[in-house]
Amino acid sequence: MQTTRTTADRPRGRDTLHLLAGAGAVAAGAGLVLALTHSGSPLRGPLTLFFLLAAPGAAFAAALRGLDPGARLLVSAAGAVCVVMLVAQGMLATHHWSADGGVVAVGVLTMGAFLLQLAVRTRSRKVH
């Protein structure tokens, strides 16, 4: 006989964590869309800033799975700020500054970091 799990059997903390992660992903995606469509919404600035910090921060946090949560949060936040600052400095140094370009560059770097982690994890599973 197969047992079924009810919602009372699951730990509540994990559900809350997944809900917050999903809400953060939706907010970051909305910030990306609002920034690239030049929306006149008052939420454009805060949500774009959230995307610019949350996207690279999530990539760093995913790469640092071995650290304890406090150190992981601190390092991923510092790394996110560094990525945004390096993109801004690179664009200013080459005289190609644009807000859209900065958002796209941070998004592309973040996507590249996630894909690199996926490739490394897939390869390490095949080796072991």
From TrEMBL:
Domain of life: Bacteria
Entry keywords, A to Z: Membrane, Transmembrane, Transmembrane helix
Transmembrane regions listed in the UniProt entry: 16-36, 48-67, 74-95, 101-120
Protein name: Integral membrane protein
Organism from which the protein derives: Streptomyces tabacisoli
Origin organism lineage: Bacteria, Bacillati, Actinomycetota, Actinomycetes, Kitasatosporales
